[in-house]
Amino acid sequence: MPKIVDKEKKRIEIARKTMPLIARYGYENTPIRIITTEVGIGKGTFYEYFTDKEDILNEIIQLIFADWIKWVNNKIGNTDDPLKVLLFMLKDGTNLDATLEQNMIIYVDLWRWAVSDKRSDKSILKFQHYLTEGRKAVIEIIRDAQNKGLVKMEVDPLAIAAVWLALIDGISLHYMILKPEYNVDEICQSFFESLLNGIKRS
């Protein structure tokens, strides 16, 4: 009886095995030839699951954001306090494990590629989609805090969300370069308390 292959599962498996290569060499310097050799599949198998190199990049972009969301959601748990959710996002979203550090390296490479003249419109749209979705999620958390009377109504949720996500990116990068001297928990807690002094309702 022929073996039944879950095509989506196999596609994700190939993309996951490609991620360390992208982290090591960069997207532009990782040809399909290296992917098939290192992952241990033939060129025909690659094209059975991906139309081209950009297609696997789009799968990787999706996995990077899915990994981060899963990580943060596991840390947040069931709390319904939006301010605690923001703090967890900041503290736990920047305390990266080995997988998320690898993803962050790819993420930075994607940023560099996204602003170059070699970028692809299709992948940029995918990247923009996930960045926009992340911003929307933070906006909803801030609006929830406003509705619960925890944050001033005059605070602009879009502005806070944009800065919040940029802050998570920045702290993550500093942590990866400066650890173990860089105390993420202490820095995040101090900044969060300072921010709350400006946006929290008295």
Structure description:
This protein has a single domain (53-199), classed as Tetracycline Repressor, domain 2, CATH 1.10.357.10. The longest helix has 27 residues, at 121-147. Helix 4 (53-76) crosses helix 5 (82-92), helix 5 packs across helix 7 and helix 5 (82-92) packs antiparallel against helix 9 (184-199). It has 9 helices and no strands. By secondary structure, the protein is mainly α. The model has no long low-confidence stretch (mean pLDDT 88).
Concise synopsis of the structure shown:
By secondary structure, the chain is mainly α. It has one domain (53-199): Tetracycline Repressor, domain 2 (Orthogonal Bundle).
Topology of helices and strands:
Blueprint: H1 7-25, H2 32-39, H3 43-49, H4 53-76, H5 82-92, H6 98-114, H7 121-147, H8 157-178, H9 184-199
Helix pairs in contact: 1-2, 1-4, 1-6, 4-5, 4-6, 4-7, 5-7, 5-9, 7-8
Characteristic terms for this protein:
75% helix; 9 helices; Tetracycline Repressor, domain 2; 0% strand; 202 residues; mainly alpha
Q: CATH architecture, please? A: Orthogonal Bundle
Which oligomeric form is depicted? single chain
> What is the distance, rounded to the nearest whole angstrom, between the alpha carbons of the first and last residues?
69 Å
Total domain modules: 1
* DSSP summary, beta strand count: 0
Which percent band covers the strand fraction?
Answer: under 5%
The percent range for helix content is: over 70%
CATH topology: Tetracycline Repressor, domain 2
Which descriptor suits the 3D outline? elongated
Overall SS class? mainly alpha
Mean pLDDT: 88
Spell out the CATH superfamily.
Answer: Tetracycline Repressor, domain 2
CATH class: Mainly Alpha
What is the H-and-E element order?
HHHHHHHHH
Taking all Cα atoms into account, the compactness measure Rg is: 19 Å
**The biggest beta sheet, please?**
none
